[in-house]
Write a structure and sequence with these properties.
It is built from 8 helices and 6 strands; from the N terminus they run E-H-E-E-E-H-E-H-H-E-H-H-H-H. It is an alpha/beta fold and about 190 residues long. It has a single domain, classed as Pyruvate-ferredoxin oxidoreductase, PFOR, domain III (Pyruvate-ferredoxin Oxidoreductase, domain 3). Helix 5 crosses helix 6. The two termini are about 25 Å apart.
């Protein structure tokens, strides 16, 4: 059994990414469970999606220390959810920083050295500055698919299967830019 968490803030596309992953893994003949937890997602709050897969999956949620992969759409969410990563797990982190409300209002400061702290705690870290790649693909909202491209280089699933899942889940009017975003993410990690 394998577990993954997609973590970010509202509006970053974690839900679309989880749908693509669910479709991808189901097409591999696996049992898949997806669970979405929305905090204050409409106001830029924390969002986490759990994806679990294997021969038989009983529960969709992931316990602390149980995630094989964590894909974080921004740095602070990576820090927040790091305790859920297995010791042998991999964390994919978008290097973008999105200030939460306490930072915006001046009540708190955005923590410094997050990536260094994650590395020091032993996480296998794969970082990507996904926003410029999403912009190159044609839309800043493609950060999620850039990160899926990065993730695809770490999982033992053929690239054509990923592309089929994207074609099945992404609306036709934005498919081409998402396919480009996926390829840019794959190439960023080669």
């Amino acid at each position: 059994m394998h577990s993954m968490m997609l973590v970010g803030v509202g509006g970053q596309g974690t839900l679309l990414a989880s749908r693509v992953l669910g479709h991808l893994l189901l097409n591999q003949g696996l049992d898949v469970k997806v669970s979405e937890v929305h905090g204050m997602s409409q106001r830029g709050g924390s969002v986490v999606t759990y994806v679990r897969w294997g021969k038989q999956v009983a529960s969709p949620t992931v316990s602390k220390g149980g995630a094989d992969y964590i894909v974080s759409f921004e740095q602070l969410e990576a820090l927040r959810w790091a305790p859920w990563l297995k010791k042998t797990g991999v964390m994919v982190v978008n290097t973008q920083k999105i200030a939460p409300m306490p930072v915006i209002t001046g009540a708190a400061a955005y923590p410094e050295g997050i990536l260094e702290d994650l590395q020091a705690n032993g996480a296998r870290l794969v970082t990507c500055d996904a926003l410029p790649l999403a912009l190159e693909a044609g839309n800043p909202k493609c950060v999620n698919v850039v990160l899926l491209g990065v993730l695809s280089t770490l999982m033992d699933v053929d690239e054509t299967c990923w592309l089929d899942a994207l074609r099945a889940c992404v609306p036709a009017k934005v498919l081409d830019m998402n396919l480009k975003a996926f390829e840019l993410g794959r190439n960023a990690c080669r």
